Amino acid sequence: MSEQIKKPIKITETILRDAHQSLIATRMPTEFMLPIVDKMDKVGYHSVECWGGATFDASLRFLKEDPWDRLRKLRDGFKNTKLQMLFRGQNILGYRPYADDVVEYFVQKSISNGIDVIRIFDCLNDLRNLQAAVDATNKYKVQEGRGHAQVALSYTLGDAYTLEYWTDMAKKIEEMGADSICIKDMAGLLVPYKATEMISAMKSATKLPIQLHTHYTSGVAGMTYLKAVEAGVDVIDTAMSPFAMGTSQPATEVMVETFKGTPYDTGFDQNLLAEIADYFRPYRDECLANGLLNPKVMGVDIKTLLYQVPGGMLSNMVSQLKEQNAEDKYYDVLKEIPQVRKDLGEPPLVTPSSQIVGTQAVFNVLMGERYKMATKETKAVLRGEYGQTVKPMSQEVIDKVIPGEERITCRYADLLDNELDKLESEMKEWKQQDEDVLSYALFPQVATDFFKYRQAQQDKVDMTQADTKNGAYPV
Partners of 153 in the beta sheet? Predict the structure, then answer.
């Protein structure tokens, strides 16, 4: 490098969210996180991703924890570090589109309980589904003095996704009022030299900081980060080594060492990082021993690049075929996936679009006739409920699956009435804090079960005596 201008690469640490979501199904409990927060706070991270994504659902459903309580405890512990969350646009953290009043209230409560950076994405990259969340973040940033709206683009491959597409999106995101852009490469499809090309092009199109998030699934992520950093990316996402690699992110310590003594030197203390890794290592061993961490997700799966299919989607497909005793149809389904994706307008394959495309491909192959049977989600995509795709959907498939039905061309949330008051009245008997309404909005059944459990704990009920099936709790 001729010009040695210092530009330390910034790092977002994912061990408290995406790393354990990717490797151990989001099962790390809050009580395990808290003792190490003090050390993590001294590293100098750009941010620590610790909330959103699947943590909300998993906390309520499996850990019997209040996710809001987790956020407040982490906020108390991290005195100097920004906290970050992942947010699915109009779907928030749930699986359906919510009315704008719920989106705004969720953003408000996330920020007031301690979130600094909200990373907002949409499975179709339909920016209309992100606007409400961006506007809400900007509104509460002024009130709370905290809040940063980061729009994430789901990275994918295909005819439609040209360099021009990415640079146009970057310009539009800047116009939306976002504070930064993230390239969210959920399947590990971005290869090193493509990263150089993409980051360089986007850097020339926007002044916004650009962050890169990828997964090690296909084995190239560390090299991709190296080229992206050289091309001027501002922030990369990494995970502490005990929960790095495989379907997680590249290891924090490795990336810190990589850039040591270069203009991108992070200045992080490897001894401090080693102490943090030492804390997590026994927990990793425990997860391997009890089967929560499957060694299979630790390796390299080059099929990801060959078929452009995220790992979770492949395993989903295999289990669907197993159930039907049709494992011999594996390669037929793999061939069918790109075809279905094309029919549906070539969307990125990320939750929930990946599941929708994968399941439909399985049906098409097993039925022996394409779209003889379509799932309700496939119909919803074709109707336009999920938003607009980059390419037009197949008219032939539309006519076969939803003949004569009216399609939605506006932003779907424009058709939804405000729903906070209705949700509030449905769950008021359980409400102990404002945030409970939001937990209920996202996961009505799971949240109600949690509220009952919480009530029982407070009343010191013997849960072993409780008739949970019928919801009867002896006091």
Answer: 183
Between CA 53 and CA 41 the distance in angstroms is: 22
Judge whether 27 and 284 are in contact, CB under 8 Å.
Answer: no
Is the confidence at residue 112, as pLDDT, over 90? yes
Residue 127: pLDDT over 50: yes
In the predicted structure, residue 2 carries a pLDDT above the cut 60: no
Three-state DSSP at 130 gives: coil
What are the tokens at 93? 């953290």
Query: Exposed, middle or buried by CB within 10 Å (0-12, 13-18, 19+), for 60?
Result: buried
Please give the mean pLDDT across all residues of the chain. 94
Tell the residue number behind the tokens 């990125």, with chain if given: 348
First to last CA, the chain: 71
Tens of pLDDT, residues 211-251:
999 999 999 999 999 999 999 999 999 999 999 999 999 99
The residues that bridge with 327 in the sheet, in sequence order, are none
pLDDT for the residue numbered 350: 86
Which H or E run includes 87? strand 83-87
Under 8 Å CB-to-CB from 347, ≥6 apart: which residues? 123, 124, 156, 341, 353, 357, 381, 389, 390
CA dist., res. 248 & res. 84, Å (int): 17
Closest residue by Cα to residue 322 from 331, 334, 310, 330: 330
> How far, CA to CA in Å, does 34 sit from each of 71, 76, 274, 452?
11, 10, 17, 26
| 186, pLDDT greater than 50 | yes
CA torsion angle 362 368 370 373 (round to 10): -70
391, two tokens = 């390419």
Task: Return the pLDDT at 3.
Answer: 58
The single residue listed with the structure tokens 């001894």 is 271
